[in-house]
Structure formats: structure tokens, C-alpha cells
Amino acid sequence: MKLEKMRKRGQSSLYSTFLWMTLFPLIILGAVIIGYNTYAFSEGMQTQMRERLKNIASAVLITYDEAYPGDYDIEMESEDKMLLKKGDTIISGRYEIMDKMKKETGVDITIFFYDLRMLTTLRDDEGRRFTGTATNIMISNKMWKEKKERFYSNVEVDGKGYYAYYGPIFNREGTCIGMIATATSSQSVKDLVFGAAFRNIVITLLTLLVTGYVIIRYSANIILDIKRIMTFMKGIKKENFSIELDSHVLIRDDEIGDMGRFMIHVRDSLQQVVELDPLTGLYNRRAGGKRLSVTKEKALQNGFDYTITLGDIDFFKRVNDEYGHEAGDVVLKKVASLLKEGLKGKGFVVRWGGEEFLAVFEKRDAQTAYVILDELIHKIRETRIEYNNQTIMITMSFGVAVCNNYDDVAFQINEADEKLYYAKEHGRNRVVLNVENAEEPEILEKIETTEVIEENEVCVNGEQDDSSESNS
Questions:
Q1: Which H or E element spans position 387?
Q2: Contact assessment for residue 23 and residue 212, using Cβ atoms and an 8 Å cutoff
Q3: Which residue ranges form the domains of the chain, and what is each CATH number?
Q4: Contacts of 436 (CB under 8 A, 6+ apart)
Q5: Dmax over Cα atoms in the chain, in whole Å?
Q6: Which of 129, 410, 424, 457 could bridge 453 with an S-S bond, Cβ 3.0-4.6 Å?
Q7: Calpha distance 441→378 (Å, rounded)
């Protein structure tokens, strides 16, 4: 019971284990790809944004230098109001260049004199520009200390987040007197990153789904073929050597296909050992008895006829005694071949023991079997078997049982055996169906047990006179 539970658990978990071992790494790989791509895109977006903001800031400074040559400076309009100059021109309030650049790029631009906003496109909710306001003290301190451009991913202005670039502005003497800032909404950048990440996730998931589907289908085919092999092996275990392995397994060019072809070889080898007589290649008595039982069961279920016959080689013992057992083996193999050929498509033959053969006719009544056997023993009688430069000729006798589907198989075999005995007692070389109407064989010469017909030609057949040995 415990072994059966383990076997069932092993069978049910094979598919899930296979999927787990293949899909789990794929899921992990997909998560890593999504995470890495999102991070890489975010980093790339920041780098791209930094270069864009830097280029816009450079373009603004160049445009102002071309429009208003000279250094940036301050002119006091009053004690509390300062105006920004560029060369000899006061540029405070002149937003044509800055507003045009914003319209074209969508980027906010601010020019600082030291840390004070003098020109800007940034506005509050009421539309007023943030001129005259100071930048973040940490940003200005770093600028005055390092005098290098910097990029910030989250600068807050009036409660709104910005991606911002800050670049120093120098006068002709090389003194840093201010800075220029270009900024774009953090939310817009995040939307771009999110959109790209979402597309990346969708593409990755679709790729994973397609790959997973392919793996599942491939895994399912592998498991199915493994189950087909298992079903085949179970049939072999039950000694059903007529079972065939599904062609889907045999057409594979991989290890599973090799396994299937190997199991075919195992089946055939086991059949040779378990079912077949090693000398003649016919069913042995054990396997023949099982197949006979199956034949009877099918006949009972489907209502068709079958016929059991029992045959024996006449005077076979004398062949062994006169020419040795090797000659006897040659005779047995030849007779087996003739019987097997004669019943091909009609039934099957069993080596029942020694020189005795059980021939079972499927879907044929006793009279039909009688006719077939009568032709067959004629063919056997005419056959010349070559051995050691000598020709041996033999005859056979058969008893035919009239089978009723409800009779016991042993009873039917016994009936065939009694009729075979009758054939032996009444001249051999004949088929006996009805004891009362049994006829003498068509050709039956009363000869000695062993008679040279021609040079190196021997015949073993015919009736046995009072001085002959008993049949075998």
C-alpha cells in the first residue's frame, strides 16, 4: 500500500516537478530582466535628460551672447530693485529668447545672478514669474564652491518637483557670477520612465508567456511520451507482448525515442524468453495456453467460432534414434515453419511438448480447420528435409476438437488429444474430426519404419505393423 502511494505520488509530481524546474528559473530570469531594464532605462533617461538640459542651457547662453554681447552684471534701479544687464543692455523683462526656447523645447529656463533668479520661465499658479527669488542654498553653495555643472533629479520649486541642470556663468575674467538652470517636470520624466518600463514589462511578460507556453507544450509532450512508455512497460509486465508502443515515441530523435526503441527490443527479448519456444520460435505451452484462454473469451463475447487441434509428428522418436537429436531439431524447426505459415492469418501454433503441436484456428469452425489441416499434412508429407546429405520425409497426425464456447478449454484440448490418439491408432498421416467417419489417408504406404526411397533419402511415416515400435 505504501509502495503504491509512493508510485502514484511520483507519477503525479513528475509533470509539476518538470514545470517547476523549467518555469521557475524562467520567472526569476524575467523578473531580473524587467528590473534591470527598468533601472537601465531610468539611468539612461536621466543621462539623456541631463544632456538635453545641458544642450538647451548652452543654446540659451549662446543665443544671449549673440543677441547681447558682453558680461552679465547688475544695475540698481532702486535700493530694493536690481536689473540684469548683458553688456550695455538691460535684459531684465526681455523674455523673447527665453520664452521662445521654452515653447520649442518645453523646458523651463532660469538665469541667476549669484543665487537670485533674474530671468525665468517658471511661474506660480497665478502666472507670475519667480523672479527675485533665491535658489536652494545647498545648490548655490555647491556651485560657488565647485564652480561645476550639476544635475539634480528632484529639485523642488513652489512645491513642484523638477529634473534640473545647473551650469556656472563666468565673466570675461573667469569669475563665476551666476548660473543658468534648465528644468523639466519630474512627473513628466517619471511618466516617460513608467511608460517605457510598462512597455518593457509587457514585452517581457509576453515573451515569458510565449516561452512558458512552448516549454509547457514541450514538457507535456515529453511527459506524455514518458507515460506512453510507462503504459507500454506495464503491458510487458503483464506479459502482453502483443502491445505496441505509440508511434509518437518511436519517431522522436532524442533520448526518449532511443528509450522507446530500446523498450521495443526489451519486449521482443522478453517475449523470446517468456513466450516463445527457443528452438521453433512458436509459442511455448504456457504462453499458448494464455492466448488460447484469450481467444475463447473473445469468442464467447463476440460469438465467433474457434477450433482447437492437436498434432504430432509420426514416428519422431525414430528420427532421433536413427539420426540424432540434431536431426530431430531440424525436423521440428521445419515442421514449425510449415505449420506457422499454414496458419498465418488464421490462428496460431503452439509447441505443446516434444513433437506435439497445438494449432488454434480463430474465427473458423472445425470443418474449416479440418480442410486446412488436410491440405497442410499433404504439404508436410511432400516436404523433403535435408540433413547431412540425406533427405528425411515425415508425416503428421491431427485431432480436431469441435469447440463449444461454453466448454472448458481443458475439455476441448482433451477431445483433440483423444482424436489424435485415434489417428495414431488407425494409421497416422491423417486428420481426425469425427471418429465414426474417420477415413484412411489418401496416400499411406505400408513400409518399414525407416526405408531408403532413393540414394540418401529416408522416409519416416506410414502404419506401424505388429513389430514396429510404439509411436512417440
A1: strand 385-387
A2: yes
A3: 20-192 (3.30.450.20), 282-460 (3.30.70.270)
A4: none
A5: 160
A6: 457
A7: 10
